[in-house]
Request: fold
Amino acid sequence: MSAPAALPTIDVSSFATGAPPTPAQDATAAELDRTCREIGFFLVTGHGVQPEVKVAMMAAMRRFFALPAEEKQRIAIGNSRCHRGYVAIAEEILDDANQTAGDLKESIDTGGEHSPDHPEVRAGVPMFGPNQFPADPGFRAAWEAYRGQVIEAARRVQRAMARALGLPDEFLLDRPGGEVMYHLRHLHYPPRDTVAPGPNQLGCGAHTDYGTVTLLADDGVGGLQVMRRDGTWIEVAVPDDRLVVNIGDLMAIWTNDRWVSNPHRVINPPHTDRYSMPLFVTPPFHAEISCLDTCLRADEEPRYQPQQAGAYLVSRLDATHSYRNPLLAG
Reply:
């Protein structure tokens, strides 16, 4: 693997909520379109996540993951009907081609905080319900602050994406079928020399993301690798003041592969821990995702069958988490 590669950087500040129209928006959208056609990964500035908010969230994560295993298991994801809670090391397998060993990472999975009287909770729709939080009250406070700011960052990116696709800026944020789903994961990758990986066992196996777009912050340790369109892997360095953005499967369906979801993976660092926080953005659960008119030439046909966003998300989670699929428990 060569030295870490520098991804293109795009400033999305002009698409902030409530910002007035400016000429910069068209230039940003054109740059985003070009980048998504070429690689599907980029960095963003002007995202609105304050450094101190990120630092506080990282500190809360480190406190939780340093706890004894039995303490972490008190909020095990298997206790949740809406995929919220703690996932232990090797309980998730993201690489479909290597189903022999789980990923060498642990996580806390969170989503929207939905009360029992939320319409989707009352209807029993998967992925809607309460979170399971660590007992540390500082975790929830840090989570609320960080989640609010990174969702605003995601909205800025989605507005720029819509503009790039020749759609109204709010198109991706205002779909029928309910609310846009934002799932924030908190990930810890222990050092390679403490977990004794098996053959081809990685911190996070090669995979594509499931939704429309992902925004990730990390601690700068490194380990994220991205596959180029030609099939070669590059290591990605993430400057502290930026977020990494990548395309997911549902966006590839929407754009008829104008923008393709790139495979990526994580290699555990040799002698240090790695922490990261991806925010996964998925259209409303009941939204139908099919080829956009702006992405279909007169001589083309859609490459994919329409998908219901929620059903696709649930199917992919079932395929990768051992608590949801007994065949993975091994």
